Amino acid sequence: MKTKLTLSLISALAATAAHGKGLYYVPNDTEASVPIQWTVGINATYDDNTSPTVPNVPGPAGLGFEDETISLNPYVGMSFVSVTPQTTWDVYARLGVIYYLDEPEAVGSDDIYSQIRAGVNLTHRFNEQLRFVSRNFVSYELEPDYSYGFASTRQVSEYLYWQTDNSLGYRWTERFATYSGFQLTGLDYDNVPNADYFTWTIYNQFRYQVTPQSVLTASYRYSETSGDGIASDSTNQYLLVGIEHRFSPSTILIANVGAQLREVDGLGGDDSTNPYAELTLQTQVNQQFTIRGFLRYGVEDYDSVIGIAQFDERQVLRIGISGEYQVSQALSIFGGVDYIDTSYESGRVGVVPIAVTGDESLVNAYIGASLKFTEYLTGTLSFNHTTSDGSAAIFGNTRDYDRNRISLGLSAEF
User: Fold this and answer.
1) How far is CA 42 from the centre of its chain?
2) Tell me, what's the pLDDT at 55?
3) Dihedral sign, Cα of residue 171, residue 251, residue 258, residue 180
4) What span, in angstroms and rounded, lies between the C-alpha atoms of 390 and 335?
5) Is 329 left (phi over 0), alpha (psi -120 to 50) or beta?
6) Element (H, E) at 282
7) By percentage, how much of the chain surpasses pLDDT 90?
8) DSSP assignment letter at 396
9) pTM, two decimal places
10) Could you report the per-residue pLDDT of 367-413, keeping only the tens digit for each?
């Protein structure tokens, strides 16, 4: 057994998914402090297709394909919110492990994996006109969260994903304001070649309040991405216009559309200009029913290498919807679906163009229920189904799979 526990990261790196920024993120000032809350729990999961196939390599499915397992996922988490007239802190963390009762059969698999997330969000108001906003998130885990916008298939290795986004907002007049900032993002896999990326971004957004409910925006973003191995480096510029509109105090829409100007570094790199769009919707339908959704379309750097081929234009559409309905004070029902459609274009091997293209789609859907047994003790039951389909010879059948997971959980909060 090869144990991969990074316990030195406990205090800085663990978190609950609900707090992460992701594509569901809607900026919203927290209004009240919340004391430290602790959560301790365990999930038991049956998985009918645990082991992934060989990563990014064409050919037949590898050893362990459609391997059935049962795993245990114990975890501990904490969160707190501090609100003062000048400064707001939102801190959260979660540390857990996934332990397989029988080690998965795929080559290189272990019987225990880390599951760590953490985040720190800060808003500091220097005065009525100037504020500093910092959003920070980090995770080290195996299973991807598709709402974070980098994974388009299952992962075959633990990965470290982190992001820090820091900006200064200044209100020049009653209606006009700007936000200027920088963002750093890193993705580092333990055992996957040509898949690590580091991106730095600077941006500026102009904001004009048309009505008390609507703000028009114009944004410019400049980013540079460095890829590992044969994965290409690239430069992306975004020219966007958008709107933020509150249909009601509990319903907000944020949308941006425009152009993505992309340059791929190195000999043989293919430059392109592409449409870009992003949309986030959050609504509290009534006291019992909450819905969130997102859409993003653009060219992404992640997962651009298949085998020995580099694809300079990987167009990705991401759509996600999640919701929760509170049946009673004790019983809640939750569910959601992620849809990812990917088109691989402008392929090459080194500097030699290849005519092969590919399309890939993934649907990840889940539904579950949460029942409070007491004020502190809660049980959950959930079902998750994932279907992935790759249509080109470059994938072989290593990207095609169906997967079902059933989880039963128990947690205590205090």
Assistant:
1) 23
2) 43
3) positive
4) 26
5) alpha
6) strand 272-284
7) 65
8) T
9) 0.89
10) 999 999 999 999 999 999 999 887 655 555 557 889 999 999 999 99
Total Cβ atoms within 10 A of residue 177: 19
- The amino acid occupying position 208 is Y
**Smallest Cα–Cα separation from 320: which of 340, 302, 346, 343?**
340
Domain ranges of the chain: 7-413
List strand residue ranges (DSSP E) for 4-85, in order.
34-47, 69-83
pLDDT digits (tens, 9 = 90+) for 30-57: 678 899 999 999 999 999 988 654 444 4
What is the reported pLDDT for 391? 65
User: What is the amino acid identity at position 330?
Assistant: A
Coil, helix or strand at residue 276: strand
How confident is the model at residue 17, as a pLDDT? 34
- Cβ neighbors of 384 (< 8 A, separation 6 or more) are 364, 365, 366, 403, 404, 405, 406, 407
Q: Which of 157, 159, 162 is nearest to 186 (CA)?
A: 162
Q: Which two tokens stand for residue 167?
A: 């900006």
Q: Which CATH number fits the domain 7-413, given the four candidates 2.40.160, 3.40.50, 1.20.120, 2.60.40?
A: 2.40.160
